[in-house]
Amino acid sequence: MKALVLAAGMGERLRPLTDVTPKPMLEVGGRPLIHYPLAMLRRGGVTEVAINVHHLASVIRRGLGDGSRLGLRITYAPEPVLLGTGGPLNSLREFLGGIENENTFVIANSDTILDLDLRAMLAFHSDRAALATIALFRPANLDYYSRLEIDAGQKLRRMRLLARRDPLRYDDYPAGLDDSVAGSLSPFMYCGVIVADQAVFDLMPPAPPWSIMAGLFAPMVANAMPVFGYVHRGYFRTIDDLKTYDALKAEFSSSSPPGILTS
Predict the structure, then answer these.
(1) What is the DSSP secondary structure assignment for residue 260, as one 8-state letter?
(2) What is the per-residue pLDDT across 140-154, written as a single tens digit (0 to 9) for each?
(3) What element of type H or E holds 137?
(4) Relative to the CA of 137, which of 40, 64, 213, 232 has its CA 20 to 30 Å away?
(5) pLDDT tens digits, 182-201
(6) Can you tell me the distance from the alpha carbon of 238 to that of 241, in angstroms, rounded to the nearest whole number?
(7) Are 7 and 24 in contact (CB under 8 A)?
(8) Which residues have CB under 8 Å from 185's CB, separation 6+?
(9) Is the domain defined by 2-254 classed in CATH 3.30.1180.10?
């Protein structure tokens, strides 16, 4: 199985650290942050990974090499100009769809640490004949993030993409939802992993730049297509800014969570 790991961002909220070190290569627990999602993918059966790179790309290339030390084969997808979170898919269609009899691929963020059981998520995706399955988590500060809302069967019925925090405003997909339906939904945040079928390539915007949520998955939800939410209830951390990075480093200096780097 193949995956795309998104690693091209500028990491602006982590400056000045990211002026010299790209966010995926910042150290957590004695190793680069990106090692953790790569280990999660490897545990789940992923063997080949494409990593899109832009900001300080050479640092990422030198640090990860061809991936053999991590039990993976890495292909780099350079972005001289940023393509957005969805844009890399346009040029990676052949790579991600290039395994015979393999209809599914994975997209993962490079700045999250979680003990997600990817094999269980893949089974969930297959059992529901989903076009896409998005990993979800319920944080204490849900209003800080976009809200992805599922029904009792875990189908995504509405995406409320965060447009502004102060005052709080969302762009809703679908734009209008009956109050009785909306009141029955359970809200979560996206926690950095997506399983998708190759059929989604035919639904993508034709050219970058574009956002993977606003440009692809939110319109799919608005059109009631089979997009599901897989609720992750285990360990999950993401780095948003210097404060959360310092907190995570302190947590790992005390004791790193078990199982997040095991094969």
Answers:
(1) S
(2) 888 889 999 999 999
(3) strand 132-137
(4) 64
(5) 889 999 999 999 999 999 99
(6) 9
(7) yes
(8) 149, 150, 151, 157, 158
(9) no
